From TrEMBL:
Pfam families found in the cross-reference section: Cas12f1-like_TNB, HTH_OrfB_IS605, OrfB_IS605
Keywords assigned: DNA recombination, DNA-binding, Metal-binding, Transposition, Zinc
Entry similarity comment: In the N-terminal section; belongs to the transposase 2 family. In the C-terminal section; belongs to the transposase 35 family.
Domain Transposase putative helix-turn-helix: 1-44
Ranges where the Cas12f1-like TNB domain occurs: 314-380
Any one GO MF annotation of this record: DNA binding
Residue ranges of every copy of the Probable transposase IS891/IS1136/IS1341 domain listed in the record: 181-287
Protein name, as recorded: Putative transposase
Alphabetized PANTHER family for the sequence: RNA-GUIDED DNA ENDONUCLEASE RV2885C-RELATED (PTHR30405:SF11), TRANSPOSASE (PTHR30405)
Any one of the GO BP annotations: DNA recombination
Length: 394
């Protein structure tokens, strides 16, 4: 099993300056490789591949020993592979008829990660194991950087990445062969319905709250963004205002992530089988159809619903739930969400009139009444049990 560990770095002032320069040189390498591809195609119709650009690294490093030559060769290859991945994703979108979105040059605020593909090649985790009270990671050109290791690393460290978030630096370890930590069986099963009023409603009637972190911070964010809009571009005060806005968004993201971890852990501890809807969140949160001249119906309401769904963090929650279920040895099943909220859990009658309001469900055929989310969760559980039974019989 693979798992990632993220730790806060505590670099000295010289190391922080070196990390900043390392990030800047990798950004310039990325942009230069991007320009190389664009120019070759525009002038000669030639497509440049990763292998050719990787071969050019030797000459680039030799010509710039005090710049590009300082950093790990493998980390620079990882940056070139990152660009190659962006181009491959672009061509995949073209082939499938989606909006292409041509790869862009990276500005200073849009390149924040450097990766070392192999522990021991230009980097070394736990580089000073004899130290009694601290952990260190060694990075070529930067030195031994102290790490705030708040939990142990399990498995085998495969890749090491350094990421800048605001004024802080983090190291991210991707580890293979992480042992599972199975939980004792409970014998319980549950279907879960994701919502806005409650993040999760189970088929047992349990509800996990949706704290609406973005909504709670909306006033402070609006004030910070108004302040930002008044600042002159390129000024020190504008940079400070940008940092304040970024810090608020970072706080919201961390709060959302923390709540998702706690909610997922609660479900994994209580149930052996968890069934959820196979949601396409990008489709659900699309803007209302229409044009500027002829907008669609209920545009403002749709925008508000989209904002609430994204604030709830369904995608983050489902990803974390999948990882925790795998580690704990729990079974997770995703089912088709079609009509789960319109179907009566008692008689199976399907009609949009069954759901009176966001919270009320009343079947027009048999008169069954229940909370709409609980009714949907029961339908989700039944669909998941049917899928499991069909898979066992096959």
């Amino acid at each position: 099993m693979r798992r990632s560990y993220k730790y806060l770095l505590r670099p000295t002032s010289k190391q922080a300056a070196a990390l900043t320069q390392c990030l800047e040189d990798h950004r310039q390498l990325y942009n230069a490789a991007m320009e190389h591809r664009r120019t070759a195609y525009a002038k000669a119709g030639a497509s440049i591949r990763y292998g050719e650009q990787s071969a050019d690294l030797k000459h680039i490093r030799a010509d710039d020993p005090g710049g590009q030559g300082r950093w790990s060769f493998s980390s620079q290859q990882a940056t070139l592979r990152r660009l190659d991945k962006a181009f491959r994703a672009f061509f995949d979108r073209v082939r499938t008829g989606r909006t292409p979105g041509f790869p862009r040059f990276k500005g200073r605020g849009w390149f924040d990660t450097v990766e070392w593909p192999k522990d021991g090649d230009g980097c070394r985790w736990d580089s000073q194991p004899e130290h009694p009270a601290a952990s260190y990671v060694r990075l070529q050109g930067i030195g031994h950087v102290r790490v705030h290791q708040h939990r142990p690393v399990k498995g085998r460290v495969k890749t090491i990445s350094v990421k800048r978030e605001g004024s802080r630096w983090y190291v991210v370890l991707s580890c293979d062969d992480v042992p599972a930590e199975p939980l004792p069986a409970t014998g319980a099963v549950a279907g879960v319905d994701l919502g806005v009023a409650s993040l999760v409603t189970t088929s047992d009637g349990e509800r996990l709250a949706n704290p609406r972190h973005l909504a709670a911070t909306a006033d402070r964010l609006a004030a910070a963004q108004r302040d930002l809009a008044c600042k002159k571009r390129g000024s020190k005060r504008r940079r400070e205002a940008v940092a304040r806005v970024a810090a608020l968004y970072r706080t919201v993201r961390r709060q959302r992530l923390d709540h998702a971890h706690k909610a997922a852990l609660a479900l994994v501890r209580d149930y052996d089988l968890i069934v959820h809807e196979d949601l396409r969140i990008a489709n659900i949160t699309r803007s209302a159809s229409g044009t500027i001249d002829a907008p669609g119906r209920n545009v403002a309401a749709k925008a508000g619903l989209n904002r609430s769904i994204l604030d709830a963090g369904w995608g983050v929650f489902l990803t974390i739930l999948a990882h925790k279920a795998e580690s704990a040895g729990r079974e997770l099943i995703a089912v088709n969400p079609a009509n789960t909220s319109r179907t009566c859990a008692r008689c199976g009658h399907v009609a949009k009139e069954n759901r009176l309001t966001q919270a009320e469900f009343a079947c027009t055929a048999c008169g069954h009444a229940a909370h709409a989310d609980v009714n949907a969760a029961v339908n989700i559980l039944r669909a998941g049990l049917a899928l499991r039974q069909a898979a066992e019989a096959a």
